[in-house]
Specification:
Layout: E1 3-7, H1 12-23, E2 28-32, H2 43-46, E3 56-59, E4 62-65, H3 67-78, H4 91-122, H5 128-144, H6 158-172, H7 181-193, H8 197-214
Helix pairs in contact: 1-3, 1-6, 1-8, 4-5, 4-6, 6-8
Length: 220
């Protein structure tokens, strides 16, 4: 049976999992959710994931949520030999990939939520301190890429898939990455080679529309 992926269009973490599955050439059964409509609170989904969040996968008797653990699990279970470069076994290489991935979801994506997403929901003013922190974070990524083709070395890895999904979200919010030459060059390159990138572009467009409908002042 294919892995079931419960996801929402427009979600960068869901896009990251989707692109990982595509990169692994993995057959998946997509289960689209509408969080604003409350699909995640329906009894049938709460029986699968009482934490009621997406992405969530069901693989036979195993259920996992949280995007980056899902990405690693899918690799460790399903990666064929010709895909091993995405998450090499070498401990030092994996440590660097993990650092980039956890920086992405714990620092980068969280600050996008703080500055762009939360003000729409709570009808609050954006904080200048959050924007300055976001600029600092993108500068860190620009530093990661100095002299490198990808964020964790010279080979595409799960870290690139992770950060690419989040950077697409940032661009969709109106943030100008052209000021960061390493980031822009990397983003355009990865956008052209990652399987499933079309889903990430779609997520970006949906996120952009959400912000436009919720708060027309949300720009860089």
């Amino acid at each position: 049976m294919p892995v079931e992926l419960y996801y929402e269009l427009g979600s960068p973490p869901c896009a990251a999992v989707y692109m990982t599955a595509k990169a692994l050439e993995l057959d998946i059964d997509l289960k689209e959710m509408d969080l604003l409509a409350g699909d995640q609170l329906k009894p049938e989904f709460l029986a699968i994931n009482p934490q009621h969040c997406v992405p969530t996968i069901v693989d036979d008797e195993l259920t996992i949520w949280e995007s980056r653990p899902i990405m690693i699990y899918l690799f460790e279970k399903y990666a064929k030999d010709d895909k091993k470069y995405l998450y090499p076994e070498d401990p030092e290489k994996r440590a660097l990939i993990n650092q980039r991935m956890f920086f992405d979801v714990g620092t980068f994506y969280q600050k996008i939520i703080d500055y762009y997403f939360l003000p729409v929901f709570i009808k609050a003013e954006q904080k200048e301190t959050d924007f300055h922190r976001l600029v600092e974070i993108v500068s860190f990524i620009n530093f990661f890429l100095a002299g490198e083709k990808f964020v964790a070395g010279n080979t595409l890895t799960l870290a690139d898939i992770s950060l690419y999904a989040t950077t697409m979200c940032l661009k969709s919010c109106g943030f100008d990455i052209s000021k960061y030459s390493n980031v822009e060059q990397w983003f355009n390159h990865v956008d052209s080679i990652i399987p499933g990138a079309e889903e990430n572009r779609k997520a970006g467009e949906i996120f952009k529309q959400f912000l436009a409908n919720g708060n027309n002042d949300i720009t860089e």
